[in-house]
Specification:
One of its GO terms (biological process) is response to amino acid. The protein has about 170 residues and is α+β, with helices and mostly antiparallel strands. It has helices spanning about 25-35, 45-50, 55-65, 100-110, 135-145, 165-170, and strands at about 1-5, 10-15, 20-25, 85-95, 110-115, 125-130, 145-155. The longest helix has 13 residues, at about 55-65.
Length: about 170
């Protein structure tokens, strides 16, 4: 739910404990937008870019972190430069219902990039980044006793604009 009050936009942010009311305005969105572009920006540089004093920027960044909106800061790794030139996505259907065991397996597998427990046709989606097709076959062999797989080889990635401004347009 969104509404304007004194030039502030207030969003209801759902969390596990219920609804947290937090004042969230265009300056917060600008901070998030700049940090999405470069999370290594210093407070001083960030304050210049959004035209706000460093103490005010620090306060807002801390508030965004404390509220859980900023979950962390990260880097992007070029997997191809590491020799991981093939990506695949697998739909995995469990045969034995040992979901937690499988979650731990994919969580700790050296080539798994992400995994999702899903509803619908299948139980999990898993993305692997591998050096060759033999590594995909090895993964399938490792899980074949307790699951069925459908493997999709990724040809190329579609770059999606995940900038905060895009998401905020429709809230």
């Amino acid at each position: 739910m969104t509404y304007n009050t004194n030039d502030k936009i207030i969003f209801e942010i759902k969390n596990i404990l219920g609804v947290l009311h937090m004042k969230f305005d265009e300056i917060d969105i600008a901070i998030l937008s700049e940090l999405q572009k470069n999370s290594r920006l210093s407070i001083r540089e960030l304050s210049k870019r959004i035209n706000l004093s460093p103490p005010s920027v620090t306060e807002r960044v801390n508030r965004l972190q404390d509220s859980g909106i900023i979950e962390g800061y990260t880097i992007r790794i070029n997997k191809k430069k590491l020799g991981l030139s093939i990506d695949c996505i697998m739909k995995i259907t469990m045969k034995n219902g040992e979901y937690n065991k499988f979650k731990n397996f994919i969580k700790n597998h050296r080539r798994s990039e992400w995994g999702y427990r899903i509803a619908g046709d299948g139980c999990f989606l898993v993305k692997l980044s591998v050096k060759n097709l033999e590594e995909i076959e090895e993964f399938i062999n490792d899980i074949s006793e307790y699951s069925l797989t459908t493997t999709i080889i990724v040809f190329s990635e579609v770059e999606i604009d995940n900038n905060i401004n895009k998401f905020m347009e429709h809230i």
